[in-house]
Design goal:
Structural class: alpha/beta
Shape: globular
Strand order of the largest sheet: 10-9-11-8-12
Number of helices: 14
């Protein structure tokens, strides 16, 4: 038995050798290579953004904004655009081009804004727009984040001596048509069985004017918009915003759906400004902090470590350029809406998550 095994083994080896010699004379197909186990780089994984390519070819960002809302988007007496949303437009342009002035502001009404975005007349809406399910799932839109947590309220004349919106039984309410505001006020009064008379107008500006002419007893809109409207009235101190908040209005930038890379550019520009405030990076020190800071989070954000900008098809200094354009989130808020502005709004829910008292503003980590 042992001799049979040895003989069989030798025969098998001769057979294999003969087969190998025969195959060596034939053309050989290349052997398939095992796929590389090396992780692909961000640049090889990333698909280019057609929107970003179009913006670069054009040489400027087309940014949709409100047609005129104090604090958010308006033109000053020299025709220059100012405001909270305007500063986010400039920061986006800076992230892309390194130039905050490489932007064209496109004023849009509530009815125009989504159509203008879908038609490509604007690349992004930095315009007070509430993130809702129907808009996110059925309107060919994508929300890239939240830059302001708002809620709907009511403004009335102080002389009425009201303490709650529940006291507006039978009142005339000025409200803008075709907006979540109109739906929210209907829900509020229906839930409570309160009668009211809606005075429906086409635009928020017309609603403010109708209220100023005393064609209604109360004006309902987002609380930030009410604060802005009050500054335009002849005697602002004669008007009060009631404490009732009847809805959640998470406002944020909107882009066309279907271009995930462009959505990421907008999302991370917003998060860079939020994170910059948390890490103490300001407009004044952004140029130096990356090199001088020992904090790796700061160095990653400002482009002195890692390739996070190139992963978005942007420069390494994209976030540094965005912050340098108009400051971090807190600087933008304070200048346009907070203590340095005529609105003098409290941070409230728009405070950083790590502040005391804490808010909902939370920057995603860059790593």
């Amino acid at each position: 038995m042992r001799r049979w095994r040895a003989t069989a083994g030798v025969a098998a080896m001769l057979t294999l050798a003969t087969g190998a010699c025969q195959r060596s004379a034939e053309p050989q197909a290349p052997e398939p290579r095992e796929p590389s186990r090396q992780a692909p780089t961000a640049a090889t994984e990333a698909k280019s953004s057609p929107t970003l390519a179009a913006v670069r070819q054009r040489g400027r960002l087309n940014c949709g904004v409100h047609e005129g809302l104090v604090g958010f988007a308006y033109t000053d007496n020299r025709g220059a655009w100012r405001g909270f949303d305007v500063d986010f437009c400039r920061a986006t342009a800076a992230a892309i081009f390194g130039d905050p002035d490489a932007v064209r502001f496109v004023p849009l009404t509530t009815e125009q804004r989504f159509e203008a975005l879908r038609d490509g007349r604007v690349d992004v809406l930095w315009r007070n727009t509430s993130w809702t399910m129907s808009r996110d799932t059925g309107a060919q839109l994508s929300f890239a984040g939240i830059n302001y947590y708002d809620g709907q309220g009511f403004m009335v004349r102080r002389a009425l001596n009201l303490s709650s919106a529940a006291e507006l039984n039978g009142a005339r309410i000025c409200v803008q048509s075709g907006s979540t505001t109109e739906l929210n006020v209907e829900d509020y009064f229906r839930r409570r069985g309160i009668e009211y008379r809606p005075v429906v107008v086409a635009t928020e500006g017309e609603a403010r004017q109708a209220y100023a002419r005393e064609e209604c007893d109360a004006f309902t809109a987002d609380i930030s918009a009410l604060a802005a409207a009050r500054t335009t009235l002849p005697n602002p101190q004669q008007h009060v915003i009631l404490p009732d908040v009847i809805s959640k209005e998470p406002l944020g930038p909107v882009v066309r759906s279907g271009d995930d890379r462009w959505t990421a550019v907008i999302r991370w520009t917003l998060n860079a400004l939020i994170l910059a405030e948390e890490l103490g990076v300001t407009r004044a020190n952004a140029a130096d902090m990356g090199k001088n800071s020992a904090d790796p989070r700061v160095r990653r954000l400002l482009g002195d470590e890692g390739d996070f900008g190139p992963s978005l098809d942007l420069s390494r200094t994209w976030a540094k350029d965005a912050v340098s354009a108009g400051g971090n989130y807190g600087e933008i808020f304070n200048r346009n809406l907070g203590s340095q502005s005529s609105l003098d709004l409290e941070r409230g829910l728009n405070a950083q998550w790590s502040s005391r008292p804490s808010g909902l503003i939370y920057g995603l980590p860059v790593r």
